[in-house]
Amino acid sequence: YFWTGDHHRSRFHFDRALTLNPADIQIKGDYANWQRASGRPVDALATIDAALSLGPFVPDWFAAVRGQTLFDLERYQEAVEALESVPVHYSSGFLYLAAARAQLGNLIGASAVIARVKSVKPDLSLRNVAQVLHYARSEARDHLIESLSKAGLTD
Fold first, then answer.
1. pTM for the structure as a whole
2. What are the tens digits of pLDDT across the range 21-50?
3. Mind giving me the DSSP string for 54-109?
């Protein structure tokens, strides 16, 4: 449900999953991502930071969720620091890295990241990104799209 944008149904299932297995770190990471996309980035940051504090062997994609959340909170420098450690195959994390760099005025660094993502996904465009975003609030989606445009991504 989360990946289709049904935030209400997603919450029910996340709550149930967390009740059934409160120690599952993967569920916590996914839940933080849901919180972020559902318009609760402050809660998402607290959730992902708590999950990251559980030990050194957390999944790589947690850094992407943390960085994306920091971007949504407009804490761009912290977002860049979190997202620079994300492996390249997490292209969504790299898109937020480009967007955060663009917001900081580092347009050369932002366009370099866009070029790197396009080397893996050559058909990447603003239109593609807009189609897969499942933000509950259009302002958050628009902020990312505008930032990616600033970074050099085109339709």
1. 0.88
2. 888 888 999 999 889 988 999 999 999 999
3. T-S---THHHHHHHHHHHHTT-HHHHHHHHTTS-TT-HHHHHHHHHHHHHTT-HHH
